[in-house]
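Kindly go through the entry underneath: sequence plus fold tokens. Please state briefly how this chain folds according to its tokens.
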Amino acid sequence: MSVPWGPGSASRAPPPPPPPCAGCSLMCRRYYWAEASARHNDLPWQLLLKFNNELRQKDANLTSLTGTHTNIPKLKAGFVGGQFWSAYTPCNTQNKDAVKRTMEQIDVIHRMCQMYPETFLCVTSSQGIRQAFREGKVASLIGVEGGHSIDSSLGVLRALYHLGMRYLTLTHSCNTPWADNWLVDTGDHDAQSGGLSDDFGKSVVREMNRLGVIIDLAHVSVATMKAALNQSQAPVIFSHSSAFALCEHRRNVPDDVLQLVKQTGSLVMVNFYNDYVACKREANLSQVADHLDHIKKVAGAGAVGFGGDFDGVTRLPVGLEDVSKYPNLVAELLRRQWTEAEVRGALADNLLRVFEAVEQASNHARDPEETPIEQNYLDSSCRTSYGYSAAPGLHLQPAALLASLTPLLLGPRLL
């Protein structure tokens, strides 16, 4: 039986077969050639924490890097053909240096490709992923993990697109002024937008559709999930979320949302973090496969993928301890009678289908979204207000307008 090892692989020689594994059928061993593609990986964050992004430090060498879930030998052992490297900066950078920090993380991803050109190929399109497969390299894409990274600016959104960003997670674990995060559903945060704000939040979604940036709903509230799924003109992804029905953690996707995923041709890429898999500190590979089975059952085989979250979490299931272990999950799915086409879908084809649909829905000839967020929605403690005072309507609510005029009305001697 012929088993492909990646989309568009006709011109590429297959890698040598992996060593036999206990209990694996011949089909399982041959299927390890299938490339695992384009999942969420936080290695750039670890490079910041450990080395301040100084990649030429001896211990930062990705061929011998220790203390991480990801390095080049582990990627090769896991037959990983693509990654969405996360350009992540924490929520405590919001209204401070989030944009700067995000750009630095994008920069370190580009430098990974420059330093290890024999291993990584930075790409920005579905065709680029296929090219990397043909060249035997890891297709390296950029995902920005958190809407706070655009600092409520459509101009920053567009600039990050031009720097290579191809998905944006609408929130991390904090609200933005235009979208609510998952902690709203736990009661730990107050809802601010009721999902997506009617003005700026929906404008962000429209602009992402226009540009061809994949909308990522990992980390958002259920109301935000539903609003974005209903608003977007292209399929969306959950880059690293699991099934709420199996683990009632609010980072996971409930079944009614999975129905919307099915209707919109969207994708849920299963997170491997123990707390989202088993709702406790310990988990195993079989439980991850249960999540894949459940999403497949509710939303269809085309709606499921591998999310990973390696190097972004501290507890991983037995059997999925690092990126070299992906073949174990492939073997488990084949043991559960998943077809070759279904496994190929979870590995790469489903994500490629969504990416291609996002590209097809994009329209750079259409006028960009221009209306800025209203100034009163922003934390103004570290901001200037250039443009707002001259713009029609001032973009200020009465209370904010009064506050801005008070110094002029009272004069400096009375303040």
